[in-house]
């Protein structure tokens, strides 16, 4: 308990005895008016020998009248006109000084004008919901938690789902959020609560809503699929309208100020365990202010009205858009998958699951094709009867480049096209592309060996070209061995004595000079 210091008590009592108002004493001493009032009452009781209502009671000195006229009263009409123009108090005070020679203080104008302003209290429509009808979700900030593998602490994201009828909540903290994390937290909440609500109200965050719109907001595909799996309808709140989901906003604030305030955790699992304990032990046992009932008791009533959960959880996927190539395939993770009946050149949606993938129409989301995931890079999941073998413009362009390299390269590319069809275009482009890194003669020799040995893989052709190039470089750098075969007898070659006389004459001529 805070006790006013003795010297301040003496100062306050002295000013009270001098007839100063409590507001003026507060401005001079900095002591709150409630404290000043208690000191005045205590001093009156000490100085009174009989009860204050009895005979002989000592009446404290009279206070100045509280309703004395303000120094702004002569300017009431002018101030009211300025307030109707929505001018602020500072502008009104400055004009009073400049135009009317006002000598009062700014605070006098502020108090006087504040009493004239008609303030209507902000009103909200309180919405009532049936049990199991609506849940509200949002993100907040959790308590400081140690980052794994370091001594640094930071705040994770706090996910809260609150049932609108009973105010029972599910709370979890995660380090990072994504579309899949957001959807998985919904699943965990429904499993924890034992069922799902008909509607879920969320904010317009990117994990749930791609394009906010008042009439037709666009949800991301993964979140929309998860809601459909559990039979839940999303109801995104309007932009900058947090009051639509006031229950979860209050739950987040209550969690941060009561459960997590001033706490630190060594791991995110420790914080989640604490939140679950706190929800069961304290938050669910509280008496809700507006309902005047225990949260857990209302939740027991609501539990029977929640939607039953499906037997299996949702299978999560990653969604891509791909173009159908002229081989009627789409390429995912370096493998090709048949896309018929989608036409060549069209865009399709690819949903990539853990063990399989789905091809869907981009406009209607109708299922076109299902394939198991390829186990090896470079695989082609296309039945032989669906492979197009008629040459396209790309086929003719590749074969023309192969012909420029050499006849063996052209023969190899034609053989591969007859076997694979247009699906083999990628390998054919790889073969003719070797001419950009190796001499054409090397590529031609590699293709000759591939034809002779029946090689059908591009990496093998590339390895052959690299091997031939290294052999050619080694042959150029090898030293010349052995002696040259010199001719010893010829009609142009003279005797050795003739060359000796010539050298002697040359030496004598040099000496004479």
Task: Describe it.
- Helix 5 crosses helix 6 (106-116) and helix 15 (440-453) packs across helix 16.
- The chain is built from 17 helices and 17 strands.
- It is of the alpha/beta class and 513 residues long.
- The chain has 5 domains: 6-47; 73-116; 134-303, Ribonuclease H-like superfamily/Ribonuclease H (Nucleotidyltransferase, domain 5), CATH 3.30.420.10; 318-386, no CATH class; 393-474, no CATH class.
- The radius of gyration is 45 Å and the shape is elongated.
- The N and C termini lie far apart (128 Å).
- 42% of the residues lie in helices and 15% in strands.
- Mean pLDDT is 88; it is low at 51-57.
- The strands form 5 sheets. A 5-stranded mixed β-sheet has the order 5-4-1-6-9, with helices on both faces. A 4-stranded antiparallel β-sheet has the order 11-14-15-16, with no helix packed on it. It has a 3-stranded mixed β-sheet with strand order 3-2-10.
The main sheet orders its strands as 5-4-1-6-9
* Poorly predicted spans: 51-57
Number of helices: 17
Query: How much β-strand is present in the residues?
Result: 5-15%
Average residue pLDDT: 88
- CATH class (first level) name of the largest domain: Alpha Beta
Radius of gyration: 45 Å
The span between the termini is: 128 Å
* Count of discrete domains: 5
Identify the CATH homologous superfamily of the largest domain: Ribonuclease H-like superfamily/Ribonuclease H
Any idea what the CATH architecture of the largest domain is? Answer: 2-Layer Sandwich
Task: Tell me the CATH topology of the largest domain.
Answer: Nucleotidyltransferase, domain 5
* Structural class by SSE content: alpha/beta
**Largest sheet, strands/sense/barrel:** 5 strands, mixed
Write down how many β-strands occur, each being a DSSP E stretch of 2 or more residues: 17
Coarse morphology: elongated
Amount of helix: 40-55%
């Amino acid at each position: 308990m805070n006790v006013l210091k003795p010297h301040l008590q003496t100062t306050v009592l002295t000013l009270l005895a001098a007839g100063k108002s409590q507001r003026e004493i507060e401005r001079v001493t900095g002591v709150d008016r409630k404290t000043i009032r208690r000191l005045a009452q205590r001093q009156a009781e000490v100085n009174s020998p009989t009860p204050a209502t009895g005979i002989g009671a000592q009446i404290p000195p009279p206070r100045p009248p509280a309703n004395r006229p303000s120094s702004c009263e002569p300017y009431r009409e002018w101030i009211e006109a300025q307030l109707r123009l929505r001018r602020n108090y500072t502008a009104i005070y400055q004009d009073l000084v400049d135009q009317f020679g006002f000598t009062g203080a700014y605070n006098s104008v502020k108090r006087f004008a504040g009493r004239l302003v008609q303030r209507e209290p902000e009103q909200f429509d309180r919405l009532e919901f049936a049990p199991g009808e609506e849940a509200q979700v949002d993100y907040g900030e959790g308590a400081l938690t140690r980052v794994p593998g370091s001594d640094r602490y930071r705040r994770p994201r706090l996910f809260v789902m609150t049932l609108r009828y009973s105010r029972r909540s599910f709370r979890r903290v995660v380090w990072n959020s994504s579309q899949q994390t957001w959807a998985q937290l919904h699943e965990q909440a429904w499993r924890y609560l034992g069922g799902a609500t008909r509607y879920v109200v969320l904010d317009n965050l990117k994990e749930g809503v791609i394009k906010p719109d008042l009439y037709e907001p666009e949800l991301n595909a993964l979140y929309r699929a998860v809601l459909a799996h559990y039979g839940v309808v999303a109801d995104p709140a309007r932009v900058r309208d947090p009051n639509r989901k006031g229950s979860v906003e209050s739950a987040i604030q209550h969690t941060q100020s009561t459960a997590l305030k001033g706490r630190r955790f060594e791991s995110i699992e420790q914080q989640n365990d604490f939140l679950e304990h706190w929800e069961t032990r304290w938050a669910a046992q509280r008496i809700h202010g507006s309902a005047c009932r225990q949260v857990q008791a209302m939740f027991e009533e609501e539990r029977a009205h929640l939607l039953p959960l499906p037997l299996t959880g949702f299978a999560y996927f990653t969604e891509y858009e791909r173009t159908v190539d002229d081989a009627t395939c789409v390429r995912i993770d370096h493998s090709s998958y048949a896309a018929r009946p989608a036409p060549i050149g069209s865009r399709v949606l690819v949903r990539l699951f853990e063990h399989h993938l789905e091809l869907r129409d981009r406009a209607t989301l109708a299922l076109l094709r299902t394939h198991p995931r390829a186990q090896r890079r470079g695989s082609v999941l296309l039945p032989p009867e669906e492979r197009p073998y008629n040459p396209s413009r790309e086929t003719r362009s590749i074969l023309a480049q192969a012909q420029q390299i050499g006849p063996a390269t052209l023969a190899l590319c034609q053989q591969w096209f007859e076997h694979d069809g247009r699906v083999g275009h990628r390998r054919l482009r790889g073969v003719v592309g070797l001419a950009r890194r190796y001499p054409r003669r090397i590529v031609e020799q590699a293709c000759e060996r591939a034809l002779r040995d029946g090689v059908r893989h591009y990496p093998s052709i590339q390895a052959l070209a690299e091997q031939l190039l290294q052999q050619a470089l080694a042959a150029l750098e090898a030293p010349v061995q052995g002696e040259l075969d010199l001719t010893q007898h010829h009609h142009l070659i003279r005797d050795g004595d003739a060359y000796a006389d010539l050298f002697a004459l040359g030496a004598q001529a040099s000496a004479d000079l």
